[in-house]
Write a structure and sequence with these properties.
Blueprint (H helix, E strand, L loop, with lengths): L6 E11 L11 E12 L4 E5 L6 H8 L7 E6 L2 E2 L9 H6 E4 L3 H4 L6 H11 L6 H10 L16 H13 L5 E5 L7 H17 L3 E6 L2 H7 L2 E6 L2 E7 H6 L4 H9 L12 H5 L13
Parallel strand pairs: 3-8, 3-9, 6-7, 7-8
Antiparallel strand pairs: 1-2, 1-4, 4-5, 9-10
InterPro entries: AAA+_ATPase, ABC_transp_ATP-bind, ABC_transporter-like_ATP-bd, ABC_transporter-like_CS, Oligopep_ABC_C, P-loop_NTPase
GO molecular function: ATP binding; ATP hydrolysis activity
Protein name: ABC transporter ATP-binding protein
């Protein structure tokens, strides 16, 4: 985790203009990001936490070159990618992949799972991705016949596993997980978080993990940036930020979040050994 950072963000700003409220006044401005700077080292697990409207989603769009900053830069592996035309972002699209919040919304319901997972490979020019697809489905804990089925035939947690398999298909350097467990039952979240942690280690990935829940970020990240009103108000080792928060907003986040342990209330060790589920959930707790 030394040397040139894999991702370098410098003085990043993003301003949006709303619709005019009158013909005589200029369009009002919304400052989604204000002077954000940080580095993500190779192999680091970097968390971004903040409530809805804090600016974290805008930040992720800029990191993935899906939007253009008003000011500042994003550099990936030493090259500034912010503001580049799409034709020059082919390498970034291969090396940086995203797992989105809503797995059902990010999967084409008309495609079989095998085609969904193979889609990025086909876009990169691979002619026969079948072996790679089978390998990926096994890596995320899905059965061999999963590739022949459609997304609606799976549970929410299983659909997120499909999304993760697709994101890993191009062998990226960076995995961006944008609220990947917020749409799932609480005990299923623990399984997906553990799966992500294992895959990040197995594939030597750099992880950028976005959440509104500091306890979830604590579960998977080494470092956390707390975003509030478009600014980073606290940045440091996750355990330090969680255990001794300095900013009042961070202290409110720490006080507000539940713990993943609560998902296991009422489930005994014997239940877990039999593969039982936590109350109200849809998958076995691992």
């Amino acid at each position: 985790m030394s040397g040139q950072p894999l991702i370098a963000v410098r003085d990043l700003e993003r301003t949006y203009r709303r619709s005019r409220t009158s013909l005589l006044s200029p369009p009002p401005e919304v400052h989604a990001l204000r002077g954000v700077s940080f580095d993500v080292a190779r192999g680091e697990r970097f968390g971004i936490v903040g409530e809805s409207g804090s600016g974290k989603s805008t930040l992720i769009r800029l990191l993935c070159a899906l939007d253009t900053p008003t000011a500042g830069t994003v550099a990936f592996d030493g090259e500034v990618v912010s503001g580049l035309p799409e034709r020059r972002l082919r390498g970034l699209r291969r090396d940086l992949q995203v797992v989105f919040q809503d797995p059902m919304g990010s999967l084409d319901p008309r495609m079989r799972v095998r085609d969904i997972v193979a889609e990025p490979l086909v876009a990169q020019g691979e002619r026969d991705p079948r072996a790679r697809v089978a390998e990926l489905l096994a890596d995320v804990g899905l059965p061999p016949d999963a590739g022949e089925r459609y997304p609606h035939q799976f549970s929410g947690g299983q659909r997120q596993r499909i999304s993760i398999a697709r994101a890993l298909s191009t062998r990226p350097k960076v995995l961006v997980a944008d609220e990947p467990v917020s749409a799932l039952d609480v005990s299923v979240r623990a399984q997906i978080l553990n799966l992500l942690a294992d895959l990040v280690e197995e594939h030597a990935l750099t992880l950028v993990f976005v959440s509104h829940d500091l306890s979830v970020v604590r579960h998977v990240c080494d470092t956390v940036a707390v975003v509030h009103e478009g600014r980073i108000v606290e940045l440091g080792p996750t355990e330090q930020v969680h255990g001794a928060p300095r900013h009042p907003y961070t202290r409110r986040l720490v006080a507000a979040v539940p713990t993943l342990r609560k998902a296991l209330d009422g489930v005994t060790a014997a239940d877990l050994a039999r593969g039982a589920t936590a109350p109200g959930t849809e998958e076995a707790v691992s």
